[in-house]
């Protein structure tokens, strides 16, 4: 599993579970603190991301999606090419394949990240209508 996938899996599995030793009042206090922390992150994302990216339009989303698709195709094509002869791929070929895979993963993660930014309202979406 890649580092990116591991980090995403770790983040998605993190939820507040109060310690059994905390009394109900301490649990409520802890939840309130965590809500303040979450709101701080939300406010920071709202302020910084919209200012940095501006409004997102469909053309930008499409260009990023196309770039991710092209990177995926290049990665798989390189792997197919490197194994065409039946001999094990060389170290240089493996390095090239790894680099192409990395590019695909980064672009794919950026696409997913952009979608989440729009979904959460951090980056306003500008429709054509």
Give an account of the 3D structure.
This protein is about 75% helix and about 5% strand. A two-stranded parallel ribbon has the order 1-2. It is built from 4 helices and 2 strands. It has one domain. It is mostly helical. The two termini are about 40 Å apart. It is flat. The chain has helices at about 5-10, 25-55, 60-80, 90-120; strands at about 55, 125.
Topology:
Blueprint: H1 3-12, H2 24-53, E1 56-57, H3 58-82, H4 91-119, E2 125-126
Parallel strand pairs: 1-2
- Name the helix and strand elements from N-terminus to C-terminus, one letter apiece: HHEHHE
Number of helices: 4
Which structural category fits the helices and strands? Answer: mainly alpha
Strand content: under 5%
The low-confidence parts are: 4-9
Distance from N terminus to C terminus (CA atoms, Å) equals: 42 Å
Shape: flat
Residues in helices, as a percent range: over 70%
**Main sheet summary:** 2 strands, parallel
How large, in whole angstroms, is the Cα Rg? 21 Å
Number of domains: 1
The average pLDDT value, as a whole number, equals 87
Number of strands: 2
Order of neighbouring strands in the sheet with most strands: 1-2
């Amino acid at each position: 599993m890649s580092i990116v996938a591991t980090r995403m899996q770790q983040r998605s599995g993190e939820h507040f579970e109060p310690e059994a030793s905390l009394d109900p009042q301490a649990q409520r206090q802890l939840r309130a603190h965590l809500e303040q922390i979450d709101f701080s992150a939300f406010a920071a994302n709202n302020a910084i991301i919209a200012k940095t990216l501006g409004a997102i339009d469909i053309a930008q989303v499409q260009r990023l999606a196309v770039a991710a698709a092209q990177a995926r195709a290049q990665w798989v094509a390189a792997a197919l090419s490197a194994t065409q002869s039946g001999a094990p791929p060389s170290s240089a070929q493996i390095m090239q394949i790894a680099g192409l895979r990395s590019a695909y993963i980064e672009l794919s993660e950026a696409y997913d990240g952009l979608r989440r930014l729009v979904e959460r309202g951090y980056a306003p979406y500008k429709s054509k209508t």
